[in-house]
Design a protein that fits this description.
With 191 residues, this protein is α+β, with helices and mostly antiparallel strands. It has a domain of 129 residues: Jelly Rolls (Sandwich). The protein contains two helices and eight strands. A five-stranded antiparallel sheet has the order 1-2-7-4-5. The termini are far apart.
Length: 191
């Protein structure tokens, strides 16, 4: 094995070359780096979702009194024949996918089968037609409601009619039946 001995001159040459490389690299790096270019004071905000309801198309609020669906015959036509008007106004900035639910447990002394009692919603301008059982509306409350498969755009009002119907086998008896305390709740999910 042969060992080479470095002389002072060789060590000096290696040191000078190393210093030159380090200095060249540092100078090159320093000349390629720019100053910071800053976009300052950025803000991120979301759209808003706000839905209001009305029965007359004029006075809107979070809560309005509901309707009485009288003279409903099990297995008969939905009542009232022309339906009651419901207006949903989206005063937010997001388009809203509409959902409905029953947020209360109705009084049902005659044990009417609520899975066979229906609310039928028809949108006036598009003809969209959605029929949902009262039981489904009750069951969906905890999960945010049952979808109408409809959207109310930001800043607009949608008009619907609502009717009630009942399957022939939902109730039997001669004294009639009443279901009361049905709180129909509408919500909108940003879309």
């Amino acid at each position: 094995m042969v060992r080479k001995k470095f002389t002072g001159r060789t060590i000096y040459s290696i040191t000078v070359l190393s210093a030159a490389l380090i200095l060249t690299t540092a100078v090159t790096f320093a000349t390629l780096q720019s100053q910071n270019a800053v976009l300052s004071s950025n803000t991120i905000s979301t759209t808003t979702a706000f839905l209001m309801v009305s029965s007359d198309g004029t006075t809107f609020n979070n809560t309005k009194p509901g309707f009485t669906f009288s003279n409903l015959t099990p297995g008969g036509a939905a009542v009232p024949a022309s339906g009651y008007n419901i207006y949903l106004r989206n005063t937010g900035t997001a388009n809203l996918s509409i959902k409905a639910a029953v947020s209360s447990t109705p009084t049902n002394l005659n044990n009417v089968d609520l899975s066979k009692v229906f609310l039928n919603f028809t949108r006036s301008d598009s003809g969209l037609d959605t029929t949902i059982s009262v039981k489904s509306l009750m069951d969906s409350y905890a999960s945010g409601g049952t979808s109408f498969n409809d959207i109310v755009n930001a800043g607009t009002t949608a008009q619907y009619t609502v009717k009630a119907s009942m399957s022939a086998d939902a109730y039997s008896g001669s004294n009639g039946a009443t279901i009361s305390g049905i709180d129909l709740s509408f919500s909108g999910i940003g879309s």
